[in-house]
Amino acid sequence: MHLCYIDEAGNGQTLDPARPDAPPVLVVGGFTVPRSALKDLTWGFLSAKKHYRPQLRNAGQLSERIQHEIKGSDVRKNLREGNHNWRRAAMELVASLLDILEAHDARVLARVWIKEEGRAFNESGVYPASVAALNETFQAQLAHEHSRGMMVLDSRTKVKNAPNVHAVTTRKYRAGGDSLRGIIESPVFGHSDTHTLLQLADLVVSSLLFPIACHAYLNDVTWNVHCDDAYQPLREQFGARLKKLQFRYQDPVGKWRGGIVVSDRRTAQPSSLMFGPAKPAVPEILIPGQQADGGEVPSGL
Predict the structure, then answer these.
(1) Which string of b and e fits 240-275 if b means at least 16 CB within 10 Å?
(2) Structural domains for the chain
C-alpha cells in the first residue's frame, strides 16, 4: 500500500502590479510513499525538524515536535532576506528533505500553474482539476507497483474541500467502471498539526516547487516579491534531484504524463525548466516513443 500527501502553495489572487505580494503561481502537489516506509520517513522528518529548530531538542512531549511546523514561506523569506547563515540553513534544510524522500522511495508529483499578468485566475476550477490529475498519476504508480493507496489532502474549508473529492468519487463509482481502482477511497483531509507528513508536503511544495517555478517562469516579473533571484540556487542545486524523484508514465497513446507538470499560460514553456535552465537546441536521436524534454504543457487543465 502507498500513501499520498498533498498540499498547496499560492492562491487565486490575480497577478497584478497593484498587488506585488500576490503569488504568481499556484502549486498543488506533494509526494507518495510506501506504507512500509511511513514510520521511518516520519521519524526522519522529525529528526530534521529538531536539527533546524534546536528548541525542539528539549521538548518534553513528542506531540510538541509533531505540532511545531516549519513553514515553507519562512524558508523562502530566509532565502530572500536572510543573512548568509540563514540562507545556508534554508538550503541545507531543503537538501535534508530531499535526502529523506530519496531514502524512503518517495515520489514527488505536482501541478504547477503559472499565472498571466492581469488575467483572473479560476482557483475554484484549477484546484479540483489538479487533484483529479494527481489521482491519475497516483493510480498509474499504484498499477505499476501492484499496490493500493489513499490520498491525504491538507484541509482547507468545507466549501473548498468538497469539490476536490467529488471529481474523484464520481470517477470511482460511475456506471462505466472504476478508472482509479488502486485508490481505495476518495481523498481524505487532515490538518498539518496532526498529520506530520502533511508538513513535509507543505515544505516540498512551498519551499522548493513554488520558488523554483517563480524563478524559472517569471524571472522577468521584477515587481513581484516572489520572483527573486535568491531562488536560483534551489533550481541549480536541486533541480536534477527533483527530476529523478518523479514517477512518470506513458498513456495509451504513448504520451508521457505524471511527475511535475507545469501549465505555463504566459509563454507556454515546458515543464523541464523546473529542473534547470533551458539548454541550446541541438540535434538529438530519440528512441521511438521517447520524449525530448521531461515535461508537458497540458492544455486541458
Answers:
(1) ebbbebbbbbeeeeeebebbbbbbbebeebbbbbbb
(2) 2-275 (3.30.420.10)
